[in-house]
Amino acid sequence: xxxxADDVLQFDATGAPAQHGAAEVRKTTxxxxxxxxxGFQFDVRDLAIEVSGDLAFAHSFxxxxxxxxxxxxxxxxxxxxxxxxxxxxxxxxxxEHVSVPLPR
Length: 104
Known about the structure:
Layout: E1 4-11, E2 19-20, H1 22-34, E3 41-52, E4 55-67, E5 73-87, E6 90-99
Parallel strand pairs: 1-6
Antiparallel strand pairs: 1-2, 3-4, 4-5, 5-6
């Protein structure tokens, strides 16, 4: 969570339409991790990163697979985009967007 700026804005595929600030992002991220049984799989593919000055963005497809604590088998892929700003010499996520691709 140290990669997130205090004033991050997150649009996530689960939960509320937007999370404002690192505390909210931390809360929803913790709940997401805690929803899985041990040993879930997380894969990142087609990661691309672009940097210009003190701004950068990255995007990828991320796959989560495993069993939830409610016993539901999940295998899903999301689109992930993050915008970073270099602050005080460190890169911080200032905006993150996670969405579920439309069926083909």
